[in-house]
Amino acid sequence: MNTKNFTFSILELATVCSHSTPQETFKKSLDLAQKAEGFGYKRFWLAEHHNMLSIASSATSVLIGYIAGGTKTIRVGSGGIMLPNHSPLIVSEQFGTLASIYPNRIDLGLGRAPGTDPITAQAIRSDRMQAVHKFPEEISEIQKYFSSENSGGKVRASVAEGINVPLYILGSSTDSAHLAAKKGLPYVFASHFAPAQLFEALNIYRSNFKPSEFLQEPYTIACINVIAADSDQQAETISTSMIRMMFGVLTGNIDYLQAPINMTRELRDLSEDPAFQRMLKYSFVGSKETVKQKTADFLQKTGVNELMVASHIYDHQDRVKSYRIFSEVMKEF
């Protein structure tokens, strides 16, 4: 496999641990971004979620500014902004402002899921279901606001006009693959929690891709979970925090990320349960060699251009170490 100059990035959810606060979480996110810059990661994207105790990345654009302000070269962006929750004009103004402050470092990933439960989605925007159906049109609106040609428009996001903010289409099913291909935009698949349609979506995107002024050839990013440590056993122990967290998501009992415990038969059975596997099929847990083998297999089967890594790890130093090990893995291909 020739993956020279292969791009690898981070998807950050600002996961809040038990006995911690969002303020402490944000400081750890910034520290990770600073270290990731040195490790060779290309991007540091923040996800948008709402009404979840364990995830503090709800004000995504605000956090992007915080991370970009504390780093120098790493690209910072959204993975993603859930567009039906927002006005295209406001998103354009926010990201135009960010890119004016941090030139050529801001990415705008756009998705159509709510990033929350139905009741909260209704509280965010009462007409959100109408907005979901207008997702393609609202992406075009954002492109219009960023265009220099809109300087004569009746409605303008003047701070965004002519500013370079690359757009990425996010998806967890095949719908967004068609859209990204039609618009000639990069495509990012959420295989870290919704792996079922990964290969079908990638095939649809590549087969139907139409070159645009933004992109001449298909560009794909796939998200995976990685927990890397000195040994398989250490990584397995650390992964118990993620398993318990995901069990809470599946059962509706969402809580803060808990400290790891020794792997029990009950937790092992849980991690091998079909419902878990439907979510966490692409969770690479183990030593450097184990993670390298699983990553190489994934790259070979998917042929994606870039990997984006998420990790739910309780101890901050363990998390930094996991990302360091993964960066070493990627540089060895």
Over the alpha carbons, how many angstroms does the gyration radius reach?
19 Å
List unreliable stretches of 5+ residues.
none
Q: Largest sheet, if any?
A: 8 strands, parallel, barrel
Strand order of the largest sheet: 1-2-3-4-5-6-7-9
N-to-C SSE series? Answer: EHEHEHEHHHEHEHEHHHEHEH
Secondary structure category? alpha/beta
Number of strands: 9
Average predicted local confidence, pLDDT: 94
What proportion of the residues is helical, as a percent range? Answer: 40-55%
> Helical segment tally?
13
What is the chains' assembly state?
A: single chain
Beta content comes to 15-25%
Described by the principal axes of the CA atoms, the overall outline is globular
- What's the N-to-C terminus distance? 7 Å
